[in-house]
Amino acid sequence: MIRQADTWEKSGDRRYIFLRCYSMMSTNMVAAIRAGEFKDCEWVATLINHFAAYYFKALTAYERNPAESPAAWRQAHQAAQHQKLHVLQYLLLGVNAHINYDLPLALYDCLCKEWPNLDETQRESRQEDHETVNVIIGKTTDEVQDTVVEPMAPLMAVVDQAMGRIDEWLLSQMISSWRHEVWNVAIRMLDAPEFVIRETIKKEQEQKALEKGEGLLRV
C-alpha cells in the first residue's frame, strides 16, 4: 500500500489519498491485533487481509480494463484521475467503494463456512469484533486529517481548530454507519438460501455504493 501510494503521489495521481489513509488504518489494525484488542484476533487478521485483497483485485482489473472493475471502484479511480475535487471527496469515494461494496463481500467470504455452526453468542462475538474496528477508525481519523487532508486543504486546519474533534467525529460516525449497514448486508447474504439471491443482494449493494459515490461527487 505504501509503495503504491508513494508512486501515485509522485506522479500526481490523486488515488494516493485514499490509499495513504488505508495504509494508516491497516497499520493501526495490525497494532490492535497484536495488542489483543479483539475477541478473535486470528479471525480479524484473516478478514483484513481478505478485505485488502478485494481492493487490489479491483485495482488490477481497472488497470487492465476499467470496464472489468466494479462500478464503484471505476467511479472512484476515474474521479481521482480526471476530476478536480476536494481532498475529502477523493478520500470518501475510495472509502465508499471499499466499505460499501468490498466489505460485505469480504465479510461473507470469511463467515460463510462457519456461520451455520456458530451459536448466537459466537455470532455476536464476530459482530463485536466488526464493531471494534469503528473505534480504531475513530482513532485513525485525526492522523489522516493531520497528515493527508490538511496539507492539501489548509482550510481544514482552521476548521479543526474551530470545531475541536467534531469534524473528525462526524467523519468517523458516517463511516461507522456505513459499516453497520454492510454488516446487515453480509448477514442477508449468509441467510440467503440460493446463489441467485446472494447475487441479487450483491448487485443491489453495488448500485447503492454507486449512488453514494454519485452523491459525494455532487457535494
Q: How big a fraction of the residues is strand?
A: under 5%
- Biggest sheet character: none
Radius of gyration, whole Å: 17 Å
Can you count the beta strands? 0
Indicate the structural class: mainly alpha
Shape: globular
Unreliable residue stretches: 154-166
Number of domains in the coordinates? Answer: 1
Total count of helical runs of at least 4 residues = 9
Distance between the termini: 28 Å
Provide the helix percentage: over 70%
Mean pLDDT: 89
One letter per element, helices H and strands E, the order comes to HHHHHHHHH
Would you give an account of this structure?
This protein has 219 residues and is mainly alpha-helical. The chain has one domain. Helices cover 83% and strands 0% of the residues. It has nine helices and no strands. Helix 3 packs across helix 5, helix 4 runs antiparallel to helix 5 and helix 5 packs parallel to helix 8. The protein is globular. It starts with a helix and ends with a helix. The relative contact order is 0.13. About 6% of the residues have low confidence.
Compose a concise summary of this entry.
The chain has 219 residues and is an all-alpha fold. The protein contains nine helices and no strands. It has one domain (2-218).
